[in-house]
Amino acid sequence: MKQARIGIIGGTGLAEALLKEGDGEPVEVDTPFGPPASKPILANWQGAEVVFLSRHGEGHRFSPSAVPYRANIWALKKLGVSTIIASGATGSLREDFEPGHLVLCDQVIDRTHRRESTFFDQGLAVHVEFADPFCPRLRKLLAEAGQQVETTVHHAGTYVCMEGPQFSTRAESNMHRQWGGDLIGMTCMPEAKLAREAQMCYALVAFPTDYDCWRPVETTRGKEALLKEILSNLKTATTHAIRLIQETLKRPGMFEADCACRGALKMAIWSDKSKVPSSVRQRLDLLIGSHFADE
Ligand SMILES: [Zn+2]
Question: Average pLDDT of 44-70?
Fold first, then answer.
């Protein structure tokens, strides 16, 4: 098989569903940050070479704070992935982002605080731009493909990424709404930051499965009925998300290499390159090798 190009990171629901698609081949990948959450699966899907990765690992073993984000992104990069479509279940912070809809997020508020969020934590200082955390080119392709999907696809939304694993208090939920948050989730960060550092195009398809606790629930319905409804919403959203990704893979321009994300490190390495220890250069060669080629 030639080098795979499109990475698909499956969050809750989508990973299991995707693994049933096509005949994938799991591959072992080593990274300087340990093994990825699960073995990436190389597959030919919809005529494209893709790599599926289950964010939470087989059997959903990793909680959001424990997901090996750096190893996940590194593994995809090593397999030749240049574009990542990620998915994630979320809570909705606004009435019109209904459970079952899909949201192509355009902004993030990062409230995580106990995760390794950079590849460049020692031996050099790297500051990538992150004003637009999701690839605009990829979001546009997803939005175009969204016309073929039988649900509402919102073309923008601000994702508040909380640490978890507990859900928000009602006061926090109201605060997130006041901040301008549209969705609340636990996994998009640092994933999107690391993808940018790895100079990969990255977009997130978020699917709200319920309204967060800001919205009063009907007291006549039991907790069991509510949970059932969330799981059913997750299933419906997963079906829509798969269709969206399938349609996106067919878009002309999907495999274009010309995108600002691919040059994210160009002006970002602030260290004097001659002072960066060779051990650091070797360790991070996959990401920074070409930037040191002339040294
Ligand atoms: Zn891009």
Answer: 91
Q: Please compute the mean of the pLDDT values over residues 61-88 and round it to a whole number.
A: 96
pTM: 0.94
pLDDT tens figures, 204-231 = 999 999 999 999 877 677 788 888 888 8
**Ligand 1 centroid distance, CA of 210 (Å):** 30
**What separation in Å is there between the alpha carbon of 120 and the centre of ligand 1?**
21
| Cα–Cα distances in angstroms (integers) from residue 266 to residues 90, 233, 269, in the given order | 33, 42, 7
Cα 60–Cα 190–Cα 66 angle in degrees, nearest 5? 35
Q: Which domains does the chain have, with CATH numbers?
A: 6-291 (3.40.50.1580)
State both tokens at 269.
Answer: 């390495």
Query: To which residue do tokens 């693994």 refer?
Result: 19
DSSP-assigned letter for residue 84: E
CA–centroid distance, 277 to ligand 1, in Å, is 30
Query: Residues 102, 243: contact at Cβ < 8 Å?
Result: no
Contacts of 198 (CB under 8 A, 6+ apart): 73, 74, 77, 119, 287
**Ligand 1 centre from 67 Cα, in Å?**
24
Q: By C-alpha distance, which of 117, 114, 137 is closest to 126?
A: 117
What gap in Å lies between CA 77 and CA 217, rounded to an integer? 43
Q: Which of 182, 212, 258, 285 is catalytic?
A: 212
Of 210, 258, 285, 294, the catalytic one is 210
Pinpoint the alpha helices (H) of the chain: 14-19, 69-78, 136-145, 170-178, 188-197, 223-249, 278-283, 285-288
Whether residue 100 has pLDDT greater than 70 = yes
One-letter amino acid for residue 204 of the chain:
L
Q: Is 212 a catalytic residue?
A: yes
Residue holding tokens 């060669």? 285
